[in-house]
Amino acid sequence: MTDPRLVEITDRIIERSRATRAAYLEKVARMQSKGPARKRLACGNLAHGFAACGPSDKEALAEGDAPNLGVVSAYNEMLSAHVPYGTYMEPIRQAAHEAGMTAQFAGGVPAMCDGVTQGRDGMDLSLFSRDVIAMSTAIALSHDMFDGVMCLGVCDKIVPGLLIGALSFGQLPTIFIPAGPMTPGLPNAEKVRVRQLFAEGKVGRKELLAAESASYHSAGTCTFYGTANSNQMLMEIMGLHLPGSSFVNPETQLREVLTREAVKQLAKITTAGGNYTSLADIVDEKVIVNGVIGLMATGGSTNHAIHIMAIARAAGVNLNWQDLSDLSDIIPLMCRIYPNGLADINRFQAVGGMGYLMRELRKVGLLHDDVKTVMGEGGLTPYTKEPFLDNGELVWRDAPAESLDDAVLRPAHAPFSPEGGMKLLKGNLGRSVIKVSAVKPQYRKIKAPAVVFETQEDLQAAFKRGELDKDLIAVVRFQGPKACGMPELHKLTPSLGVLQDRGFKVALVTDGRMSGASGKVPAAIHLTPEALDNGPIGLIRDGDMIELDAENGSLVLLVSDEELQGRQHAAVDLSASHQGMGRELFAPFRASVGQAEEGATVFNW
Hints:
This protein has helices spanning 4-16, 18-31, 43-50, 55-63, 89-98, 114-117, 126-141, 158-167, 188-199, 205-215, 227-237, 253-268, 279-282, 285-298, 304-314, 321-330, 345-351, 353-363, 456-464, 481-484, 492-501, 561-565, 587-592, and strands spanning 68-73, 102-108, 148-152, 174-176, 385-390, 393-398, 422-427, 430-435, 445-453, 472-476, 506-510, 523-528, 545-549, 554-557. The protein is 37% helix and 13% strand. Helix 9 crosses helix 21 and helix 14 runs antiparallel to helix 15 (304-314). Catalyzes the dehydration of 6-phospho-D-gluconate to 2-dehydro-3-deoxy-6-phospho-D-gluconate.
């Protein structure tokens, strides 16, 4: 039986979304085709669509009625997680042929690596790349040649962008195919230790690079539980991956078999497969809520406080941060994966993984089971199993009855915390979110004077000069989407962590983003309205007292209303942040982007 508290939260989302969801479904219905979509094309259009195909595919596309599947891929050689996709097309094509279908590479989407661009000018394009990816997905599918979609993507903005774009073609059955994490490298605790030593000047760049290279060492997703692996969890708990497929390592036989199986499963849910299940059928209010539940139960990335908002709105669902916070209040934190613990994602997979997690949440009524998935009807039962090879054949077995390591994964009735990992903070500074799953309880409340910065570089410079060895709340503003594209401020984590380790009470308040890899220092992020929108963060002055209370959900500037009314908003010259590294091309995005709580998107849903 579904927990009544979960039902109440979901029902209010359904009611709030009634008009927008109906409008979305009406749009999808207008786009549906009773037969192959390509039959709507004129002969000249169709001839262009299969001109370069082989003879058998050309004949099938011209004369046959079998589905044609479109592949949209984020393959490139800059992202370790996406390198494996370079070999996926031929196995996909072969599996499609075996299922009596055809498959075409519909298009590629851009994919940048936040790990490469952290702290660099290119990071200013990162968040906006999500909406570019969504538009690129739409371009790939706009030829109207396809009856099903395979989305190949893993990392930060890429999966949300692919899903937002695919939802504009919600009439098409769609499956996401993962690539899997790299095998374990340097332990996360050691990586953090070296980073902090470097921040203090105690080791040099050579030692730091050696540690980083030992951590990120091969093809596959980075092994910490940041946004990339949160994406994979999200696609599985929302029923858009094959069960148990998210965290199978690349270049293994099981990984290849799962890729082929995904194609065959997609064939079953096309109009010709007898169990038609469109993307719009799957991604509804309950599935969106299930995604949020997964984020809370695992301590997922704070970036999804933005991305899942944008995804929801693309499906006509009106979600807000209060919903996330209320769900966090009832969802147990069942995982300790770095940065919320020391284990990596491979360890999580080994000790029980998604099958165990989802079965446990279902058992206590904290997951909607009356949903559709790429497995068709039947709810989430298939997702309590995990894949294995038996003499080369794919078989599904029940996930472990017990966690194999309760320091990493615990049952829902005995979690690490009775509440999830993300909270809404409200007060006279506006609304923001905080990830508390990695913050020790003694650090979740802080009252300290503000030290105000306009850039993260200014904060790092002050740290190196020894000016921050005190209790403080660092305020880093003009980092919002309108100001400079809302770059992640992950580079601040080592410096702030060092100050906390020295015994100082430290927190961060910003209208920018941190990373899914952010950890132990309390950070009120995504503060909205942002400074460039005349948000109250622009009124803060050095020395103002701020009180951050993650337990009670408050963020308050302890300055009287009368004093604030007499202040002028801070002004800053942002022109240097709008030129170079392609940033000048994104001026229309900065001018039209919405607020963080609405998904920080340029789309007007």
